[in-house]
Design brief:
single chain, 652 residues, mainly beta, nine-stranded mixed β-sheet, four-stranded antiparallel β-sheet, 2 helices, globular
Length: 652
């Protein structure tokens, strides 16, 4: 039998592998074999940590999209928690809002419901009965009494550790609650409109309190101090407020804060600590004055702080991960070992081989010169970056704000190039022009991003989230109303939606003469002959069909990033197969590849797999027409031939 292989070297490679490995049973289609630990987390470390919580000497970190991490001691490495019931919990991003605990259990409020752990945070089980009632933003505990603040459903109580719940709304006049706090049987609840309610009988009855508070304030936290005197503190977007009459009246106690935005207040028994939008502050005089406590942590947005009389404190930050102090807050140091919690909006490989990662939530821009083995922060850049574009020796970075940044040294240093755009979501080059997809439509620049002209004639309102340019000069734009195409460099746009039943397009990819669109409900394929056709066979059911990213490998392999991992196709999108072994959190938002494939996730940083170590093995099935491929250190070549399967070796 003759094998139609592109090069003599490929023939030699595959025959050598046959001699080493022997023949295997025939397969009906080409596939990648699955193997444990194929994907490996690669960083960057840190990310956004919404909540930190201490139980004895053990600590928990709740991230914004990446679920829960656990550390057995203040300075112990973090362990990613994977044991959830139901097991599908990590099939998409898991946002953790906060924690509460009693003598037997820990509770976590998340975007997927409230979870309970009875083994110090090692495993978690969804409180299904509460989820059937509504979404809970916060939990508070008084021994066996568990109280939950729900969105649109009021307050509920459980007397059997969260198994069953009953409404506890007597005296409440609003139904949406976001914040709870308690000391013993006295509970405080913050409702919409900034209303504060108090219960002194374990949340059975409530009364409106809070005279002196600003109207419509955004309350983030309650801290109730019982000794040496009874005081109630509120941390809010408007500052810190204190009551000395059990919440009946409040006064402003924000003197000394650099930012009034207070996310959380914690009390050690001697000092108060405030997590603010401008760092950590503390008070030794019961809130009369506040002093900065930011050495080592900087002026970053601190979202949560947990403190202990021993002086071992922990803070969770926006974009910077976790910081710890062993000196009662006198100094802090980063503690992100094994904490992969960044939200990566785009990975971008420069011609030099440097890979840039644009982060959300104040993560800024990171870069790696060894494809993720080590990462470094950059200087002068934005708080967050959505997209990149290389133009010769320069690189542009689009942001969720009005600034467009430029770098002349492979992303090491950045400067503002323009302030003319709003929420730049994609950047592409076509001919001598640069195009930006923004929340206000498409803009064009002819001077490397300095001056921009709106070129959105024919586009619907609502913004553009993706652009794709082809060599013949056509440009495709994704809107919330479908796909539009321009054949005159953005001068005008025409709808291209016949057969596109899902109009919210998130990503584009081109393979030969086919255009693929990733949508909120699967993949569609476009050809000039057939128009748009569904191309989602093998993808999971909604809501896990959202396709944020697609990337090709060689001539025929397509990868797609979904909320529950990576899928690939070897037959022009006719069928898709999961490829996520080792990808512990699979909400994939972006791809990058050279000799390795890297994915950026929604809350668990980046993962890589080493494509140079893929091993092509043939099976003798003359009637099976599939694809034969070979991977070298530099490229992939693919032709029609015998059935071929793949496995990863040495991907460490």
């Amino acid at each position: 039998m003759k094998l139609q292989i592109l090069t003599r070297n490929v023939i030699v490679l595959c025959l050598a592998l046959l001699v080493i490995s022997g023949l295997r049973p025939a397969t009906s289609a080409a596939k990648f074999e699955t193997a444990a630990e194929r994907w490996r987390p690669t960083g960057p470390l840190g990310g956004t940590v919404n909540a930190v919580h201490r139980v004895g000497g053990m600590f928990l970190a709740g991230t914004h999209g990446g679920g829960i991490y656990r550390a057995s001691a203040l300075d112990s490495p973090w362990t990613y928690v994977e044991d959830y019931t139901p097991a599908s919990t990590l099939s998409e991003s898991l946002i953790v809002y906060g924690f509460a605990s009693n003598a037997s259990s820990i509770f976590a409020t998340t975007s997927r419901g409230v979870f309970r752990s009875t083994d110090s945070g090692v495993s978690w089980k969804l409180l299904e009965n509460l989820s059937r009632i509504g979404a809970a933003f916060q939990i508070a505990c008084n021994d066996g009494v568990i109280v939950a603040a729900l969105n649109d459903s009021g307050v509920f109580r459980s007397l059997n550790n969260g198994l069953d719940w009953v409404a506890a709304n007597n005296g409440l006049t609003v139904s949406t609650f976001t914040t709870l706090g308690n000391a013993g049987s006295t509970f405080f609840a913050a409702g919409n409109g900034g209303r504060v309610y108090r219960s002194t009988d374990n949340a059975q009855n409530w009364m409106l309190v809070g005279a002196g508070l600003p109207s419509d304030m955004k309350i983030n936290d309650f801290e109730i101090v019982t000794s040496p005197e009874a005081l109630v503190y509120i941390g809010a977007a408007e500052g810190i407020f204190r009551s000395s009459d059990n919440g009946a009246t409040f006064n402003d106690f924000s003197r000394g804060l650099r930012s009034r935005i207070t996310n959380e207040i914690s009390y050690t028994g001697a000092d108060l600590f405030a997590a603010t939008a401008d760092g950590v502050f503390y008070s030794t005089d019961r809130g009369l004055s506040w002093l900065e406590r930011n050495t080592g942590i900087g002026n970053r947005n601190v979202l949560s702080v947990t403190v202990a009389p021993s002086g071992k404190h922990m803070a969770g930050t926006e974009g910077g991960g976790v910081f710890i102090s062993e000196s009662a807050g006198a100094s802090w140091r980063s503690h992100n070992v094994n904490l992969f919690a960044h939200i990566i909006e785009q990975l971008y490989v420069l011609a030099s081989g440097t890979t840039l990662a644009g982060m959300n939530f104040s993560g800024g821009i990171w870069r790696t010169n060894d494809f993720g083995r080590t990462w470094e922060t950059t200087t002068g850049g934005p708080r967050a970056a959505n997209c990149f574009l290389q133009i010769g020796a320069k690189v542009l970075a689009g942001t969720p704000d009005s600034e467009l940044y430029i770098s002349s040294d492979s992303g090491a240093n950045w400067a503002v190039r323009s302030r003319a755009l709003t929420d730049t979501r994609a950047l592409i080059a076509s001919g001598t022009n640069i195009f930006a997809a923004t929340s206000d439509g498409v803009f064009r620049s002819t001077d490397e991003g300095g001056i921009w002209t709106r070129t959105s004639a024919g586009l619907p309102t609502g913004g553009v989230s993706a652009l794709f340019a082809v060599s013949d000069g056509r440009i495709y734009a994704d809107t919330f109303s479908g796909v539009y195409v321009s054949s005159n460099q953005g001068g005008s746009w025409t709808a291209l939606n016949d057969g596109l039943t899902e109009r919210d397009v998130l990503s584009f990819f081109r393979l030969g003469g086919l255009l693929f669109a990733g949508t909120t409900n699967g993949i569609f394929k476009f050809s000039e002959v057939a128009g748009w056709m569904p191309s989602s066979n093998g993808l999971p059911a909604a809501p896990n069909r959202r396709v944020r990213a697609m990337r090709g490998l060689g001539a025929t392999i397509i990868f797609a990033g979904l909320p529950n991992g990576v899928y690939y196709s070897l037959d022009e999108g006719q069928t898709w197969t999961p490829y996520s072994d080792g990808l512990t959190h699979g909400d994939v938002q972006t791809f990058a590849n050279t000799s390795e494939l890297m994915v950026g996730t929604n809350g668990n940083s980046a993962f890589t797999v080493n494509l140079r170590d893929f091993d092509c093995r043939f099976t003798i099935t003359p009637t099976s027409r599939t694809h034969t491929a070979a991977v070298t250190s530099d490229n992939v070549s693919v032709t029609d031939a015998l059935a071929c399967s793949w496995r990863a070796v040495g991907a460490q």
